[in-house]
Design brief:
The chain is 57% helix and 6% strand. It is mostly helical.
């Protein structure tokens, strides 16, 4: 039997890779909004190199103003909606091309299509 987390690693497992890529690109976000799958301690440790001013993890009590917490919560909720839209409307639920390169190609074409649709709608 294959363990499920072999194919779907936890968020905290992937976060250090994301931090290293952001560091290589020279990006340092001031605020980070994450869903409840992240644990606060591991997330704070992984993001230490980027030193964001605020880290928002949904479902965790955190210091800061209520207004800021709500703003970050709404931002995260909007991102989740966009991910759902991409999965349902643009075929990002699963790749029909084989291998890692096939998956990257499939994703790039789906994102390009989404961006073209968005530009068409906004320019009309």
């Amino acid at each position: 039997m294959v363990r499920r987390d072999t194919y779907h690693p936890g968020e905290n497992t992937l976060l250090p890779q994301t931090v290293s890529e952001l560091t290589q690109l020279g990006l340092a976000p001031r605020e980070v909004a994450l869903d409840g799958g992240f644990t606060l301690t591991a997330t704070t440790d992984a993001l230490a190199d980027l030193a964001p001013q605020r880290v928002f993890v949904a479902g965790c009590q955190q210091p800061g103003s209520r207004r800021t917490q709500r703003r970050l919560q709404h931002y995260r909720t909007g991102a989740e909606g966009r991910i759902s839209h991409l999965k349902r409307g643009y075929g990002l639920r699963r790749s029909r091309l084989k291998g890692d390169e096939g998956q990257k190609t499939w994703t790039r074409w789906a994102i390009l299509t989404y961006n073209l649709d968005t530009m068409t709608i906004r320019s009309a």
